Amino acid sequence: MESNYSFVDENLRVIRENVREAAEKYGRNSGDIRIMAVTKTVAPDIVNHAVSLGIDLLGENRVQEYLSKAGSYSPAEVQFIGGLQTNKVKYIIESVSMIQSVDSLKLGAEIDRLAAKHGKVMDILCEVNIGGEDSKGGVAPDKLRELIGQLTLLKNIRIKGLMTIPPPTDSDIFLGKMQELFNKLREEKISGADMQVLSMGMTHDYTQAIKYGSTLVRIGTGLFGARNYSK
Ligand SMILES: *Cc1c(COP(=O)(O)O)cnc(C)c1O
C-alpha cells in the first residue's frame, strides 16, 4: 500500500528542501516555518502516508468533508482553514486546535461561546482579504484593527496571528502588505492578541511567502498532486 504513495515522499522532500533554501536565502530560520498539509479531496490513506513521513499538521477547509474523513486519520494536529458558517462551528470546535478563517465578530463570538461551553480556549487567526477580492473571505485590511480589538474582549478565544490567500498575481505586493500589517500589530503588543503566526503561502507562492515572513505554509497540490474535483 505504502509504495503506491511514494509520489508524496518525493513531493515532501522537494517542499522541505525549498523551504530550507528559501529560509536561508531570506535570512530566516527554517525551524520557524511550519508546513501544513492541506487535505481537501485527498483520501485519508494518502493523508496518513504524509503523516507517516513526519507531517504533523493538517489543514481542513470543508466541514462535511472533514467530518467524513476525521475518523480515518492517523493522529495529527488539525486546523480549520476554510470559510466557516457560524452554524457549523459546533461540528469542529472540539477536534481542531486552531481556526484560521475568522473574519467577523459574529463568527468569533460563536467560536467563543462554544469554546466556553466545552471548557476550552480556541486559538484563532484573523483572515485578511489583502487583495480586496469579492470572491474571497477575510476582513478588509482597514477593518482589521477594529475586529482584533473586538475579538480580544472574548475570553475563550486567543488571537494568534493572521492568515491570507493573496491574489494570484502581484504576489510580492500583497505578501509584503501582509508582512507590514503583521509587524505593525506585533509591535503594538495588543493585550489579548499574541501575534505569532503569519499563515500565508500555498503551492504556487510558498517560497515567496517565506521571503515576507510567513511562519506557516499551507500546501495541497504540491504535496498530494492535482485535486480531483469530480468526486
Ligand atoms: C486549497 C487551499 C490551500 C492549498 O492550496 P494549493 O494551491 O493546493 O497548495 C491553502 N490554503 C487554503 C485556505 C486552501 O483552501
| Backbone shape | globular
Q: What percent of residues adopt helix (DSSP H or I)? A: 25-40%
Q: Low-confidence parts, pLDDT < 50 over ≥5 residues?
A: none
Structural class: alpha/beta
Question: What is the rounded Rg?
Answer: 17 Å
Question: How many distinct beta strands?
Answer: 8
User: What does the largest sheet look like?
Assistant: 8 strands, parallel
Brief account:
The chain is of the alpha/beta class and 231 residues long. It is 39% helix and 19% strand. The mean pLDDT is 96.
What does this structure look like?
By secondary structure, this protein is α/β, with parallel strands linked by helices. Helices cover 39% and strands 19% of the residues. The chain has helices at 6-25, 44-52, 63-70, 89-92, 105-117, 144-151, 171-188, 206-211, 221-224; strands at residues 34-38, 57-60, 77-80, 98-102, 122-128, 157-164, 193-199, 216-219. Strands 7-6-5-4-3-2-1-8 form an 8-stranded parallel beta sheet. The structure holds pyridoxal-5'-phosphate. Residues 38, 40, 61, 81-82, 165, 202-204, 218-222 line the site of pyridoxal-5'-phosphate.
Provide the descriptors you would attach to this structure in a database record:
binds pyridoxal-5'-phosphate; eight-stranded parallel sheet; alpha/beta; 231 residues; 9 helices
List strands and helices in order, with pairings.
Layout lengths: L5 H20 L8 E5 L5 H9 L4 E4 L2 H8 L6 E4 L8 H4 L5 E5 L2 H13 L4 E7 L15 H8 L5 E8 L6 H18 L4 E7 L6 H6 L4 E4 L1 H4 L7
Parallel strand pairs: 1-2, 1-8, 2-3, 3-4, 4-5, 5-6, 6-7
Bound molecules: pyridoxal-5'-phosphate.
